[in-house]
Amino acid sequence: MDFAFYRNFITVAETGNLSAAAKRLGIVQPALSAQMKAIERNYGVQLFKMQRGKRHIELTEAGETFLQQARQLCNTEDDISLRMQAFGRRAAGTLRFSVSHVRTDYFLLSYLIPFAKENPGISYQFHDATVEQQQ
Question: What is the architecture of the domain spanning 3-87?
Answer without folding.
Answer: Orthogonal Bundle (1.10)
